[in-house]
Specification:
single chain; mainly alpha; Serine Threonine Protein Phosphatase 5, Tetratricopeptide repeat
């Protein structure tokens, strides 16, 4: 039986990827990186090795190189599933770098490619909330200034008590929702 050189090469590449994946699971990201780079040295367009290498680089805080690989995958690939994972991971990098506006756009792009991606949806919500805290809308600030300047109408103590109870209920609902989202949300890169 004669094996073609392409078949042997493909087997070696798969072995290197699996070895890299094992190192990755053991949190030995530098060794995983080396295995994925071996594959890319012989087959520079291997999308699995490229994506996994980007993940290993993210874990080592080599975000510039990781972002370059993820951008290549997003441009070169036709597979929306892989593209959505690449864009999602770019969003994670941008979130870690506190580039909220850009991370929001990355999560939106992820959802356009894969509308069912719950992690992207949750991280989009978190990024939007964080941005809102960082930059409150100007209209609200203007309203607050106007309210301070204008005398407030007096309300009865009973009406004030009712409004206070409603506000407490709304605040409790918001807190519960935020706690639920923080338990289920995950700002970690997606693995292959």
């Amino acid at each position: 039986m004669i094996f073609s050189s392409e078949f042997v090469l493909a087997q070696n590449q798969n072995k290197n990827i699996e070895t890299g994946n094992n190192y990755y699971r053991q949190q030995q990201y530098d060794k995983a990186e080396a295995e994925y780079r071996r594959v890319l040295a012989t087959s520079s367009r291997d999308k699995t090795a490229k994506f996994n290498l980007a993940d290993a680089l993210i874990r080592q805080s080599k975000t510039v190189d990781a972002n370059t690989l993820l951008s290549q995958l997003n441009v070169e690939e036709n597979d929306n599933n892989l593209r959505s994972k690449a864009v999602y991971n770019q969003g994670v990098i941008l979130t870690q770098q506190k580039k909220l506006e850009e991370s929001i756009e990355a999560y939106k792009a992820t959802l356009r490619l894969n509308p069912g991606d719950q992690e992207a949806r949750e991280n989009l919500q978190k990024a939007l909330l964080e941005l809102k805290k960082k930059n409150p809308p100007k209209k609200q600030e203007e309203k607050k200034k106007q309210e301070k300047q204008q005398p407030k109408p007096k309300i009865s103590p009973r009406d004030a008590q009712q409004q206070l109870k409603l506000l407490e209920q709304k605040e409790k609902q918001v807190q519960e929702r935020l706690q639920k989202n923080s338990r289920t949300g995950n700002a970690q890169p997606k693995d292959w």
